Amino acid sequence: MTSSSPASAGDRLFAALFWFLPTRAISRAAHGLARARLPWLKQRLIDVFMRLYPGIDMTEAAQPDARAYASFNAFFTRALAPGARPMPDDRELVVSPVDGTLGAFGDARTGTICQTKGMAYDLRTLLGGSEAWSAAFLGGRYATFYLAPDNYHRVHMPMDGCVREMRYVPGRLFGVNPRCVRSIPRLFARNERLVTLFDTAVGPMAVVMVGAFIVGGIHTRWAGQICPPHRPAPRDENFSDTALEQAYYARGDEMGRFSIGSSVILLFGPGALNWQDELTSGQKLVLGQSIARLGTGA
Fold this sequence. Notes:
By secondary structure, the protein is of the alpha+beta class. The protein has two domains: about 20-75, no CATH class; about 95-295. Helices cover about 20% and strands about 30% of the residues. The strands form four sheets. Strands 2, 5, 7, 8, 9, 12, 13, 15 and 17 form a nine-stranded antiparallel beta sheet that branches. It has a four-stranded antiparallel beta sheet with strand order 6-14-10-11, with no helix packed on it. The longest helix has 14 residues, at about 40-50. The radius of gyration is 18 Å and the shape is globular. The two termini are about 20 Å apart. About 40% of the residues are buried.
């Protein structure tokens, strides 16, 4: 389901810039700048950012003093205060894994996923070419979430799950804002991404963390920083032998984070869940907000 309008001439012109910009060099520079610890520099970056995005609510942060952060990256990936995003009491509810905007969501009946109106991409390509992984989600459901720069940038579990496998998939670093989503075909299957496969009570679940222009890093709780470096070849890790207490994450637990914003795609197997009736593309969501109810699984 998607309510996105077609790309305008301005959208296409904006997106075209990413074909010519040295996106990796700029992203590497952003990675270093965001981690600079010079007090005057890091504070200048934080102050400018907060002026650009006046909606940032520091009262929700575990550390509400913007001057207390050691670097811009520490500020950007700040933790929330306990209780800022409560989980629903009903354990059958699947929740939004992020603060962000819901993009396209629906059923992957034909092995393709809707990116926006009139534009789709291949499920198998998104998952790094794995036929076994794509078969597990054929006929299942998907949802895409966009994290704007002023959103909270940690990613949490939408339901209970146990980490089974992880795959780093190299790719481009196009922007992933709505203008690029409307204009660049197969965007999410082209960009660098991290795919993590979980075992859940209703079958497999995949969480795809999509890299983007000036995203300074993708980090997970179980493997630390995955990128940078931006690798030229896929990287696979199997966690099936990991101790249960290390591999299991409950609904609402933090699973990873972005250093500068990007997108998250959730994939579920057939029969795993049923969307909430009121869910709409373009809807603003917060972490812990219900998006679906568990099904019976395949």
